[in-house]
């Protein structure tokens, strides 16, 4: 397992799609605060307000959509070019192969998910003269939960990337799925109490509550932490089962 993770980590570090996405998100994080300064002035906006509304709000889309592109190139493309066939024939069990790739891919998703909260916040703080900085507890709490939800969404993306053997199809399907699924699930939850419970305990719903981590009670905090962990485990197992039964050509 250790050698598999090292091999996947080497491939992730050399993955051009990951570095392209990181560079683009970093550039946006460094340049966008300038628009706020020019539009509203550096002394009229507090960093905490900008962090809550713009950074965490924008990261909702980054975390759910951008790793889909990485999944298509890092996972799905390996079926098309024959890499996955070679790995499956290496003598390692498919469960170990899948979880090694899932773990390393999740690390890539974490890198992507933290660019806005860290780089964007740092740049905004400088441009806004550190006016109204968020408390360290609130910042650390949102960062920790962002990591958990990045891993949870990564497990879902990895499963879809395993189903599709073409990176273009995988990316296209996942982008549409993650754009529309939470809205569709919300509409269905209004019609059925069971679906309402599913929606209320889904990562799609709870991820939006990260911004309010400073006001939630103990029970709600436990739910915010446990749900993404359970999601990662459940979809990790489901993905490994699908990978075991998948015919690799």
From TrEMBL:
Keywords, comma-separated and alphabetical: Membrane, Transmembrane, Transmembrane helix
Recorded superkingdom: Bacteria
Annotated organism of origin: Oceanobacillus neutriphilus
Pfam families to which the protein is assigned, alphabetical: ABC2_membrane_4
Protein name: ABC-2 type transport system permease protein
Transmembrane segments: 18-38, 61-81, 102-130, 136-164, 171-191, 221-243
